[in-house]
Amino acid sequence: MRDWQGKRYWLVGASEGLGRELAFCLSKVGAELVLSARTGPRLDTLAEALPGRATALPMDVTDPAAVRDAAGGIGAIDGVICLAGTRWPMRAQGWDQERIEEMMQINYLGATRVIGAVLPGFLERGAGHVVLTGALTGFRAVPGSIGHGASKAAVMHLAEALHHDLRGTGVEVQLLNPGTIRTRLGARSQTDAPFAMEPARAAREAFEHMSSDRFKINFPYGASLPLRAAQFLPDWAYYRLFARTGKEGRS
Fold this sequence. Notes:
The protein is of the alpha/beta class. The chain has helices spanning 17-28, 40-49, 64-73, 97-125, 148-165, 199-210, 221-229, 235-245; strands at 8-12, 32-36, 54-56, 79-82, 128-133, 171-178, 216-219.
């Protein structure tokens, strides 16, 4: 079990949904938080509501200079949690290049900018904790997931590569792969989908995983099973099965 008391974490994507609820989980166990997102007023409100020490640091992960400046100004941290993300359900017939690039900029490149800004310090100290957020749809494409699924698969690949490279360095990497969460972004897809989670429940799942020494969690368990199993299906079976079920609602 991880000791959170007195640890200092940078929570990126903290203003609402899973990030906001996870901030409460961490603050209640004694972690000091630096809260980042694009919306400053929401961060201020959250920082005031948390039981422990917290600082609001507005930042846009699509701006490389802003990420570097933020990382350079927060001082030493024990870990970083990358939750910033966006989702626009999209089929090929409704191709929107601007939205696709937005999802890649925030979901994947945003995460690389944050990690790239803090990783040298972690390596120099020989200690650190990196948490990245993929998605169940990152395992294999489902209908309506153009852009989002690819960006999350890239994050999952990034986490696995970091997990390989950082073994023995003292820097720990963990990956969260959630399904549909009932948030503002989740409302763009099927939030009435089976196994859709409330943010507080998703945060508890994420926090319990982060408190462990396991690398990856796919949750909720029931929703993760068909998408994980789909990796092993032959193409003919996979496309028949998932085209029929039309699982656009996974996040």
